[in-house]
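[job 4471] stage=fold_predict status=RUNNING
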Amino acid sequence: QVQLVESGGGLVQPGGSLRLSCAGSGIDFRYFVIYWHRQAPGKSRDWVATITAGGVTNYVDSVKGRFTISRDNAKNTVYLQMNSLKPEDTAVYYCRTGNNWGQGTQVTVSS
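[job 4471] inference complete, writing structure tokens
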């Protein structure tokens, strides 16, 4: 059974940084594309970033230059480094591979 567990969320001031982790079990991450999505209150769940099995990355325009997705295949973990955070980044962040989703981790950017 595939399980994804996100961690690393929290409350941070504007301009701050957080690093989210997505740990997988029941699946060998190295062979799969991993996605990060986010859902703000009252809004749809939107795609944020992707990393392919080969390490190619892609980002939604609103986070380019601020967020970095990376993977550690030895730890079966994907990360989302988030810098220069803005209040509009406030959301629950989810990782996904295929149809498998994690439970999400809350990120709140507020002074």
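[job 4471] summary: The radius of gyration is 13 Å.
[job 4471] exit 0
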